[in-house]
Design a protein that fits this description.
The complex is a heterodimer. By secondary structure, chain A is an alpha+beta fold. Helix content of chain A is 34%, strand content 25%. Chain A has one domain. In chain A, strands 3-4-5 form a three-stranded antiparallel sheet. The longest helix of chain A has 14 residues. Chain A is elongated, with a radius of gyration of 16 Å. Chain B is α+β, with helices and mostly antiparallel strands. The two termini of chain B are 37 Å apart. The chains are: A alpha+beta, B alpha+beta. At the A-B interface, strand 1, strand 2, helix 1, strand 3 and helix 2 of A face strand 1, strand 2, strand 3, strand 4 and helix 2 of B.
């Protein structure tokens, strides 16, 4: 099973840069003044913890979890857990969130419209 | 005008069935667009309502105005952005913090240096005796918090220190992340699944 969505290219032309950067250094220069909370998570540090490794081992043993991870890996061409480096979540004053995910690999699709393989 | 994902057209059911047979599942509302962005090569962004283009754009076109907010800046200076988890918030919902006229809350949980949480207070509250007062209040709060924690979680907590400057209250502590904690978290997740 592959989820297929119509995906636009970057919606903000002025925000589109090409070089790889740290998530917060990218995000901090973009966020508007109505953001009231920011949470940053270092996935790299999280993955290095023994507690995460034990936790991940037990969770990924579940058939549903391994199926979803396999599906994402098949569709994207990389292991989402291994590639994940940092996550920054910004919440605005209306409780809407912008989720920024930094990965080791480029997650950007090659074509303008992502589609199922 | 975007259709909501749940506003599927009449023929969609048939298409969805057809797609299932072909080994694909389409997001409900085939023509619906989900807006995502790549602000840099390796950073991907999606909003809490990815069908709302304006919302997605709002997080990308702010030109960093957030960094001009004095309260956010003060909180950011106290959070360690290289930590395991860090938080800076300027919307104070907690009644006690509101009463204390807190302007921001900043915190970091790190795998090597433990945990720091700072509540920033405005200059009006920087008075004589403030340090002793917050130490006393903080200790009482931590004691109560530890009492309320399940025993298994309580054993994970290490040293907790309360410190106060003339400006801010800092609660520092460490969390022992061991196999027992991993098992506890694993059990909690299994209960939810």
């Amino acid at each position: 099973m592959v989820a297929t969505t119509a995906i636009s290219p970057a919606v903000a032309k002025d925000a589109t840069v090409t070089k790889a950067t740290d998530a917060w250094s990218t995000v901090s220069g973009l966020l508007p003044g109505n953001v009231v909370a920011v949470v940053g998570i270092s996935a790299t540090k999280l993955k290095s913890l023994q507690i995460f490794q034990d936790f991940y081992k037990s969770v990924s043993a579940d058939q549903n979890v391994s199926m979803v991870l396999g599906m994402v890996q098949g569709a994207c061409g990389f292991d989402p857990v291994a590639a994940l480096e940092n996550v920054v979540v910004a919440v605005d004053d209306k409780d809407h969130a912008g989720i920024f995910v930094q990965a080791t690999a480029s997650t950007r699709p090659r074509s303008r419209r992502a589609s199922a393989p | 005008m975007h259709r909501r994902p749940d506003e599927a057209d009449a023929g969609e059911g048939a298409r969805r069935q057809e797609d299932r047979q072909r080994g694909r599942v389409l997001v409900k509302g085939e023509k619906e667009k989900i807006y995502v962005a790549w602000p840099s090569k390796n950073v991907f962004m999606i909003s809490s309502d990815p069908t709302d283009k304006a919302l997605t754009q709002s997080f990308l076109k702010g030109k960093g105005k957030l960094l001009k907010d004095a309260n956010f800046k003060a909180g950011l200076a106290l959070a360690k952005t290289s930590g395991l988890v860090w938080v800076v918030g300027t919307k104070i919902d907690d009644d006690e913090l509101k009463a204390a006229k807190a302007k921001f809350v900043a915190g970091t949980v790190d795998s090597d240096n433990g945990t720091d949480v700072t509540v920033g207070r405005p200059p009006a509250l920087r008075r004589r005796g403030h340090r002793q007062e917050v130490r006393r209040e903080g200790r009482a709060g931590v004691r109560q918090g530890l009492k309320d924690l399940p025993a298994a979680l309580g054993t994970m907590l290490g040293n907790i220190k309360i410190a106060a400057s003339d400006k801010d209250v800092v609660v520092s502590g460490s969390v022992k992340l061991d196999k027992a904690a991993a098992k506890l978290l694993g059990d909690l997740v299994k209960q939810d699944m």
